[in-house]
Each structure stands twice: as structure tokens, then as C-alpha cells.
Amino acid sequence: MYRNKSTLMRDGGHCVEVNADFLLDYYKSYGSFFDLYNTTFGTAGKYRLYDLCAFSQHYLNDSPLIDFTKSLYVALSFGLKEKTEFVDDGILYAVEIEDLNNNYTTDKVVAECWLNDFKVYVYNFEKDDVSPEVQELKQHVKRTSPIGKLIDIATNDLMKFQQGVFLLLSDFNLVNRLYLTKNVRSSFKITKYILSKDICADLVEMIAEETPWYRFSQLLEIKDGIQSAIRHNETSL
Known about the structure:
237 residues; alpha/beta; three-stranded mixed β-sheet; globular
């Protein structure tokens, strides 16, 4: 969402503060989309943003939330997408929560509070801008890092099936595409794994054999995935 500068800065300018008020107005500007949400789920508001953001992440692909999954099979399935040839190595990110009390929740009230309080500043300058103001701002960005929070509240059957959780990053500045993700303060430990291209085909086969309902194509069709699992078990028997 933050990287979509043309949409974020519809009124021009070089800076926008993305907060709860901005989010609500942002989704209202989509008109029919916002009306559809209100008709289906109830009226969204400044203190009722979580379901709206989750709905927008799923169907608009435009929200301050980032998709994660608690299932290794789901992560591998989306990462590999049932490819048959692997030219490059794959990448997998794992998140370990460092502080259970402050940075992870299954409580919607807490999630609403986080969204109500979050704040991100997005700046948009020309890449070749070497003015002292821009250079000073870039140095400031290098000294800051987002606060990360995990929200584990399923909002639909697909999210439950995929064992999905959302990552919310707040309290940071984004200049063009510059902000630090290697250090999300002490909230999380994020580990990057390189999947050798030599074993990716075996991983795809492993998913198909051990958890066929978690294959990429099946994740998009829960009913078909369950039926596939039943057929697989009957064949094994």
C-alpha cells in the first residue's frame, strides 16, 4: 500500500501521513468497494478498521497488512507455485516472536487499538534529488526501523484454511523504497532461508504427497482441496 505513491498522493505533494483517519478516507474513496464492504460486514469506522483492512488485503490487494502463514506447507506452496523447472534458488522468511505480550494478539480489540494508533510517513521525491533536506531525511530513515506486530485473527474460511496471520508495521518513514526491514527493533526475529534450486522439485513433490490440500492451486479452492485429500487417502488405503 505504501509503495503505491500515485494512489496514496492523489492530491499531489511529497508527503502523506498514513494513519487511522487516512485509512478510512482512503477506502471510502473507492466508492462501490467501500459500499460493498458495509453492506456485507457492517459499517466500518475509525475504531472498526481491522475487518475492513483484512477484507481489502484479500480482495483489493491494498492495505497496511502483510500476509504471513503459520504453515510451512502453505509458505512453500505459495513460494514454489507448483513450478516444474527451477532456474533460481527460492527464498523463505520465518518470523519468531520475541515478546509475546506486546507484539502478538488473537484479540480483535487489541488489533483495533493497534490500527487506531499506527502511523507511517510516506515521502516521494525524485531519485536524483540531492537537496540537503532529502539527504538528511534519508539519513534519518536509516536510523529508524518499523515496529512490527502480528495479528492472528482469521476473517474468512480461506484465511483459516491457510493458517494466515497479518503483520502490521508502524512508526516508520518510507522514502521512495527506503526503509529498514533487517531490524524490526526487538519485536521479531526474522530469518531468511535460501532454498536450493536443486531441492525445490522435491519440496513440491513432498507437498503433493504429504499435504495435497496445501498445494498452491488447492489453497484457492478449499472444497476441491478437501476432496483431493479424501481421494488421496482412499488411494493410499
